Amino acid sequence: MSDMSDISGLDALPPLSRVIRDHGLAARKSLGQNFLLDMNLTARIAHLAGDLTGCDVLEVGPGPGGLTRALLAAGARRVVAVEKDARCLPALADIAAACPDRLRVIHGDALGHSLPEGLTPPVRVVANLPYNIGTELLIRWLTPEHWPPFWQSLTLMFQKEVAERITAGPGGKAYGRLAVLAQWRCEARMVLTLPPGAFSPPPKVHSAVVHLVRRDRPLFPAAPDVLSQVVRVAFNQRRKMLRTALKSLSPKIGEHLIAAGLAPTDRAEQVSVEGFCALARTLSAE
Ligand code: SAM
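Above: the input record for the complex with S-adenosylmethionine. Below: its predicted structure, written as tokens.
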């Protein structure tokens, strides 16, 4: 647990609206800047990330630092925050000064850092992500070279429609590649939905927080590269029957589908994660 001097240091910081005004942090659309200014809300998101005491936290896009403050107040051992916008650095330096040795800010592009330095396991990732890079970052975190990855859990804000695509089950329009990849390796739940008015400035769409807890072993065995390819090809032509959509994968695709317990006439969105893994296994054995 953080000691009381750290908490009182955070309490002494000015309100976020003043930080934004004093540091001239007018939101830039190109950087996906929709800030959370309500500290009750940032505290709630930090709480949804699980017990942070004894954990390092990676935060992408701290901006003026509302969520960063909440993560530190919730007892994170250390927060490493990657921010692209240099204008935010002085505000983040004030937070670092209020919590000596517990906040490291890296000025840079999160897409350029595969694993920022200074993180010691266990690590949780918590972020109100810029919407333009959220899906790409999630896919990177879900598909590292080695599993288990560097993180225990991901607690991430997305556009609600993307959050639905991560957590959807088979049978609907939202179910696709993102759901299969995420649920194969994680337990994924939508834990909070937020209206546009929760942000400043308000985005055009609703948002949602997804909490993903890694499975130490994937749900069903499959070679990650084969599964990834099968799922990509299957959902590229999601309205077609599997035997047609997947025919580029093998001349004997019909036999593979049957061996995997799938109907060649099914469509991708009817296939469970288990079904895709079974198909990846029979294709790997060809
Ligand atoms: N965490 C803050 C909050 O909740 O109020 C800000 C969230 S805002 C949605 C996204 C933040 O990500 C902005 O501060 C933006 O500057 C930053 N950002 C945008 N693109 C980035 C990138 N490629 N790498 C790191 N940070 C980025």
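Notes for the reader.
Confidence is low (pLDDT under 50) at residues 1-6.
The chain is about 40% helix and 15% strand.
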